[in-house]
Amino acid sequence: MHDTSPTSLNESPEDPFSVLRSAAAVLDRRGRVVAWSEKATELLGYRADEALGRPVHEFLVDTGDEGVVAQAARSCLREHGWFGLLPVLHRSGGRLHVGFRARRVQRLGGGDEWLLVGSLAQEITQWEIDRAVLDGFFLRSPIGVVVLGPDLRVLRVNQAIARFGGLPADAYRGRRAGEFLLGPVADWVEGKLQTVLDTGRPLIFAEHRCRLLADPHKETVISVSAFRMEDPTGRVLGVTEIVEDVTDRHRARRRLALLNQAGTRIGSTLDVARTARELAEAAVPELADALSVDLLEPVTRGEEPEADSMGPLRRMAARAVRPEGVRLMYPEGHQFFFPPDTAPHRCLAERRPVLLPALESGSGWITAEPERARQALEAGVHSLIVVPLAARGVVLGVVCLWRSQRPEPFEADDLTLAEEFAARAAVCIDNARRYTQQHQAAEALQRSLLPGEMPEQPAVETAHRYLPARASTGVGGDWFDVIPLSGLRVALVVGDVVGHGMHASATMGRLRAAVHTLAHLDLAPDEVLSRLDDLVDHLATEQRQADANAPQLVGATCLYAIYDPVSRHCAMARAGHPPPTVLDPDGEVLDVDVPAGPPLGLGGLPFESAECELAEGSLIALCSDGLLTAGGRDIDDGLALLRSTLAGASPSLEHTCKAVEDAMLPGRPDDDVTLLLGRTRVLPDGNVATWELPAEPTAAGDARALVRDQLSEWGLDEELTFTTELIVSELVTNAYRYAGGPVQLRLIRDGHLICEVSDSSSTSPHLRQASSTDEGGRGLFLVAQLAERWGTRYGPNRKTIWTEQPLAGYGGALSL
Q1: Under the phi-then-psi rule, with left for phi > 0, alpha for psi from -120 to 50, and beta for the rest, what region is 509?
Q2: Given a cut of 50, is residue 331 above it in pLDDT?
Q3: pLDDT tens string 476-511
Q4: Does residue 732 contact residue 698 with C-beta atoms inside 8 Å?
Q5: Any residues with CB less than 8 A from the CB of 694 and at least 6 apart, and which?
Q6: What is each CA distance from 431 to 296, 390, 673, 784, in whole angstroms?
Q7: What is the C-alpha separation between 570 and 620, in angstroms, rounded?
Q8: Quick check: helix, strand or coil at residue 163?
Q9: Please, which residues have CB within 8 angstroms of residue 184's CB and are 6 or more apart in sequence?
Q10: How far is it, in rounded angstroms, from Cα 680 to Cα 457?
C-alpha cells in the first residue's frame, strides 16, 4: 500500500504518531482490522490474533461512545484523514483516551484501507506543546536561534536572526559566522561552537561585542548560548546556537559600572588638579577616546569664579587613548580662552551641554586654529561632547570628550553618562576648591605664627623640619622657636597644642607669643612652663565661655631649654612633652634625665628643671610626638630610632634632618611633625673677661680701670671705652649701694659688647625719670640712653643687670 494523504509519513521518531513508537492498525472499508502492530498490543492489551478480522466497534468501542466514534469516521471519510482524541476500551475492560491520526492508504492490488496511528492522550498533548514551542522558536521568538551542522554551517535560522542580520532567513543557509560577522568576533564565535561540538559541554551566556558586515559602524553586544544536538543513538547532528542582542542591557550595566567606578575614583583627595585627572582617567577609554578638563582660573587657586565668566581657563587634565591625541591638545597647565563660536565657548555661555555627533571640516567646533583642527580630523576625531562642570549653581569649567578610535558617534545616552560624570566631578572639584581656600588660609595663618628663617646664633648652630599633617587632618598646633637671650644665651623651644584645625593653630600662636614674652623676662625653664600652664588654663576657660560648641582646648605640651655658650651650661624642663635627645661630640647619647612634668593646662602641679654641661659640638634634638609615633610606632621605639639615626648622621645638621626624615617618616604623617636640632658652640675664652669686685667704695673706680684695660686689649676705640666705663660705673655703684656683698663684672665680646654686673640682691631695678631737684635716680636712665638694650635676669641667689652695645663701628665680632 502507499500513502494517498496530503501529509508525509516521514515523521520524526519523537512524533507520538510516528509508526516507530506508536500503536498502529489497518482497517478495511468495513471497519475490520486487517493489520495489528506490537505497539497496539502494548497499548490496548489485545494480541494480533485476537484483533485481526474483527470490526473495531465490537471490542474497542464502548456502547456509550458509539456516536463519537461514528462522527469521527464520517469526518475521516469526508476529509480523507482525521486527527483527534477518542475513548477506547482496553482488553482489561478499562477505558483509555487515545489520540488518533487516520490516513487513507491504497492497497497495491487495489482498494482503499485506513491506517490508524495512536498514542495516549497525555503524550499527544505534550507533543503538541513541544511542537508549539518549536514553532515559536523559529517564527515568533525575539531571541535568535541558529541551527548548525557538524561543519558549523547554518542549517536553519529563526526570524529573530533574520531581522538581526538584515537578511531573509533562507539567505543564511550554508553560511559560516565569518560571512556575516566582521572582525575577530567571527573566530571567537566559531571557536566557542567548535568547543561545544567537540566536548558536549554547553555554552551559557557568553557576551561579546560584534559588528555586522551589513552595518560595520554599529557596535552590538551579543550573548551566545549553545548546546550539542544528538540523535537517540548518540550521533552528533550539530549545534544549536541561541543569540540575544543585549546591547541595551550591556550599556545600562556599563553605565552603572562606570558611575560606580567614577564614584570611587573621582574625589579621592581634596586636591583640584588630582580630581581633574581622576575624572579623565575614569572616562578614558571607557566613555571617550580623548578628554580634557579645563577650569576657570580662579577655581585652580581655590577661589570662586565670577558669574558668567568666560575665562581664562587652565588645562588641568588631558588624556587620550593614543599619544598623538594628547599632543593635539593643549598641555596641562596651559592657560587660554575658548574662541567664540566654538562648542566649549557655547557651553560656558549657555551653561548647558553640547553634543556634536559628527564633526565637519573647519575649526569652529573646538578651536580657532585651522591647522590644529585639520590635524584632529586627520587623526580620526569625528564626534564631540562638551559638558559644563557646575556645582551649587556655579560653573567651574568644562569637560570636552572626543571619539576617534571607535567609529560609532556619541549618542544621547553617552551625553547623559558624560553629564553624570561631570556632575560628580564638579561637586568633588568644588569641595576641593573650598578646602583649598580654607586650607590655604589656615596654612597662611600657621606659617605666620611659625618662625621664618632662623637667624645665626652665637650659641648654637640650628636646623629644623616642620611637616604639617596630611591634608585630611588639616593644620595643627605644633610650633618651635629659637629665641636669643641675654648674655649670648639661647632658648630652644618645641611645643604641641592638642588637636588640629584653626583653633589649635590660633592657640599655638598665642602660646608662642607668650613664650617669647616669658623668655625675654629671662625666666628659668621651669618658671616659663609654670606661667604657660596658667595661660593654657585661662585660654581653655575663655573658650568655654565664648562658645560651648566650639572645639575645646584640652591641653598642650612643651619642652623649653636654655643654653649658655660661655659657661656651656644647659637647663631644660618639659611639660608632658617627649624628652630631648642629647649627644656628645662623638655621637654618644648622653643620659639627661628631664622630669616629664604634667601637660600644660592641668594647673597646680610643679615643673622641674634638669641641668648639665655640654661640650662644644654637642647635639640637642627636640621633637614633637608626631615624629616618634609616625607609622604607628610606640614612643619608646620612636626615641630609640631617633637616637640611632642621630648617632650615625652626617656632621651637617641639614643632612641630619634629612636622614631623620627618611628613616622615620615613610609617608605623609598623620600628625604634625616638628624636629629642632641645635649643635652647641662655646665662646672663646679670649672673648670673655670676668672679675670679682669687693663691696667697697672703690669698686666703681676699679671696675672702670679693668674695663678700660680690657677694651684696649681688644682693640676697641676710646669712644666705646668711655661709654662702657660710664655704664659699668653706674651698675657697680648701684650694686655696692643697694646689694652689699661681692659684685661680679663680666664683659663678653661678640657681635655686641655685653656688660653684666651681678650681685646677691633680688631687688628689681626700675627705670624712672628723676626731677631736677633729685640728687640721684639718674643712673639707670643714663644706662638706658647709652646702651642699645638692657635688662635684668635672676638666678639662684643672684641678680644680673646686663647691657648690650653694638660693635658695628668697632671692628665687628671675632669669628668663632
Answers
A1: alpha
A2: yes
A3: 678 899 999 998 999 999 998 876 666 777 778 888
A4: no
A5: 742, 743
A6: 15, 12, 26, 57
A7: 10
A8: helix
A9: none
A10: 10
**Beta carbons of 472 and 693 less than 8 angstroms apart:** no
On whether the CB atoms of residues 9 and 23 are closer than 8 A, the answer is: no
- The three cell numbers of residue 420 are 553624570
pLDDT range class, residue 653, cuts 50, 70, 90: very high
Amino acid letter, residue 43: L
Residue in this structure with the C-alpha cell 596651559, named with its chain if needed: 334
Residue type at position 283: A
Mean pLDDT taken over the chain: 81
d(CA 738, CA 716): 31
Q: Who's near 334: CB < 8 A, 6+ residues apart?
A: 314, 315
3-state secondary structure 30-88: CCEEEEECHHHHHHHCCCHHHHCCCEHHHHCCCHHHHHHHHHHHHHHHHHCEEEEEEEE
Q: Outline where DSSP puts E strands in 198-305.
A: 203-212, 215-230, 236-245, 290-296
Tell me what the mean pLDDT of segment 174-203 comes to: 81
Closest CA to 364 of 339, 383, 381, 386: 339
Joined grid coordinates for residue 746: 663680666
CA 179 to chain centre: 47
Q: Which three cell numbers stand for residue 259?
A: 558611575
pLDDT on residue 816: 29
The span from the CA of 529 to the CA of 606, in Å, is 9
3-state secondary structure of 768: coil
- Please enumerate in sequence order all residues whose Cβ is within 8 A of that of 627, keeping only pairs 6 or more positions apart, or say none: 638, 642, 660, 664, 665, 669, 673, 674, 675
Amino acid at site 179: E
As given in the structure block, the three cell numbers for residue 320 are 587620550
Neighbours of 667 (CB within 10 A): 8
CA angle 586, 588, 589 (to 5 degrees): 140
* DSSP-assigned beta bridge partners for residue 394: 391
Q: In sequence order, which residues have a C-beta less than 8 Å from that of residue 183 and are 6 or more positions away?
A: 210, 211
Here the cell at position 7 is 501529509
Instruction: Give the phi and the psi of residue 248 in degrees, each rounded to 5.
Output: -65, -45
pLDDT given at position 677: 94
CB proximity list for 796: less than 8 A, separation 6 or greater: none
- 539: which 3 cell numbers? 585660654
Tell me the C-alpha distance between 563 and 671, whole Å. Answer: 29
Question: If DSSP codes are grouped into helix, strand and coil, which group holds residue 743?
Answer: strand
Residues forming a β-bridge with 620: 582, 678
Cα(741)–Cα(202) distance, rounded to whole angstroms?
112
Buried b (16+ CB within 10 A) or exposed e, 531-568: ebbebbbebbeebeeeeeeeeebebbbbbbbbbbbbeb
Confidence (pTM): 0.55
> Is residue 723 a contact partner of residue 751, using CB atoms and an 8 Å limit?
no
